[in-house]
Specification:
This protein has 209 residues and is of the alpha+beta class. It has a domain of 84 residues: Ribosomal protein L17 (50s Ribosomal Protein L17, Chain: A, Alpha-Beta Complex), CATH 3.90.1030. Helix content is 32%, strand content 10%. The chain is built from five helices and five strands. The strands form two sheets. The protein has a three-stranded antiparallel beta sheet with strand order 3-5-4, covered by helices on one side. The chain has a two-stranded antiparallel sheet with strand order 1-2. GO terms for molecular function: structural constituent of ribosome. Pfam families: Ribosomal_L17 (PF01196). This is Large ribosomal subunit protein bL17c. One of its GO terms (cellular component) is cytosolic large ribosomal subunit.
Length: 209
């Protein structure tokens, strides 16, 4: 048969956790009890405010949300809160309609490089350079040959302003009408070759057709 166990008030009070009580002079507590009596007045319980550490400044992809800082686990970093993209790359603005290859040079040096390559190709007929430079200078060579096919004085002066050597311009205007008279564009040919030794840059031959 089950036995009935009686609980005393003192046993229940001893089992409960102690609570800090701020007592005023008019508050009266019952003897041997941690709880104020119903007749006591102006009893204030101390509220433990969570101590928030000052958050360090963070500049990331996501803005800092104030509610996310009240987490139970306070850590020095924000690895659990923010998603940081770090793949070793760099972010650049997109250049829509990019038509001018920069060739890792400022505008003045890039123009001088293309003028020199165009002069050498018209002088020797075939040169070896990188594929990027060959593709960039191709349109300038075609333009010089188009100017020579016209043969006017104005076109000759335009060619003299771009090609470095004057003798090449005169020879170009003398030979182009006979050589490319029936061809409408496509005056150059690019032939890929082995990469350059040292930096493994892709190389190519560019020649006149």
């Amino acid at each position: 048969m089950a036995t009935i166990t009686t609980w005393s008030m003192s046993a229940l009070q001893s089992a409960l956790p102690s609570v800090k009580v701020a007592r005023t002079p008019s508050a009266r507590l019952s003897a041997g009890s941690a709880f104020p009596s119903p007749s006591s007045s102006r009893v204030k319980l101390t509220q433990l405010k969570p101590s928030l550490k000052s958050l360090r400044s963070f500049s990331g992809l996501a803005p800092l949300h104030p509610l996310l800082s009240l987490s139970s686990q306070e850590s020095s970093d924000f690895g659990d809160v923010f998603t940081v993209i770090d793949n070793g790359g760099r972010f650049y603005a997109m250049r829509h309609g990019r038509k001018v290859p920069k060739l890792n040079r400022p505008p003045d040096q890039r123009k001088a490089l293309l003028r020199g390559l165009t002069t050498q190709l018209l002088k020797y007929g075939r040169i070896k350079t990188t594929r990027a430079r060959a593709s960039a200078m191709r349109k300038h060579v075609d333009k010089m040959i188009t100017l020579a096919k016209d043969g006017s004085l104005h076109k000759r002066r335009q060619a003299l302003g771009f090609i470095y050597e004057k003798q090449i311009v005169h020879a170009l205007f003398a030979e182009v009408p006979e050589r490319y008279g029936e061809r409408n564009g496509g005056y150059t040919r690019i032939i890929r070759t082995l990469p350059r030794r040292g930096d493994n840059a892709p190389m190519a031959y560019i020649e006149l057709v």
